Amino acid sequence: MGTDGHSPTARRPARRRDRHGRGLRGMLAPRPVPIAHSRGDAFDAMVLHAVEHLQPRLAEQLAQVEFAVEDVPDVSHHGAADFDFDEDILDDNAVPLSRLYRNGVAGISAPVIVVYRRPLESRAAQSEDLADLVHDVVVEQLARLLGRSTDEIDPPPAE
User: What is the mean pLDDT of each run of 10 residues along the chain (159 residues)?
Assistant: First the structure.
């Protein structure tokens, strides 16, 4: 027998609590509640909203374009200096914000517009500013793809 009165080979049942005795961690909020969504989910929704805003005017053209979100640009294929000279990369002071793949990417033959989340988030002071910036980037890349001006893609509101 051990000093605690139990045989040395007897095991205690596994505890289902963490070491501080507070229990297992779970979701802090139910899934449908906005606080349960990650920043990535919120950013994806902003891109989707920007595309949906353009849908009534450009439904036919948008049906032929794919949109994607990446956290950061993949610099393994490009050096930082290459970003300055690629006309399909929308950048701010040599930091890529979005990229247009006119001929698609592996497995997708349609044009693809990739929006980079982290560079855009770092340029927005508030979430409203981020939504506007995402909208502007989507409009700019569509204008480049279609060979039209940004005002043709998303006309300014009538005063």
Answer: 56 55 58 67 93 95 95 70 71 92 91 96 90 96 96 88
Question: Edge-to-edge strand order for the sheet containing 66-70?
Answer: 66-70, 112-116, 95-101, 89-92
Per-residue pLDDT, 117: 96
pLDDT of residue 157: 84
H-assigned helices in the chain: 39-62, 80-83, 117-123, 127-146, 150-153
DSSP 85-108: T-TTEEEETTEEEEEEETT-BTTB
DSSP 8-state secondary structure symbol assigned to residue 158: P
| 83 within 8 A of 74, measured Cβ to Cβ | no
Q: What is the pLDDT of residue 9?
A: 58
CA distance 157 to 5: 81
Q: Which pair of tokens denotes residue 10?
A: 């007897």
Angle formed by the axes of helices 39-62 and 127-146, to 10°? 30
Taking the CA atoms of residue 84, residue 88, residue 128 and residue 68 in that order, the dihedral angle to the nearest 10 degrees is: -130
Q: What is the CA 86 to chain-centroid distance, rounded? A: 22
Helix, strand or coil for residue 17? coil
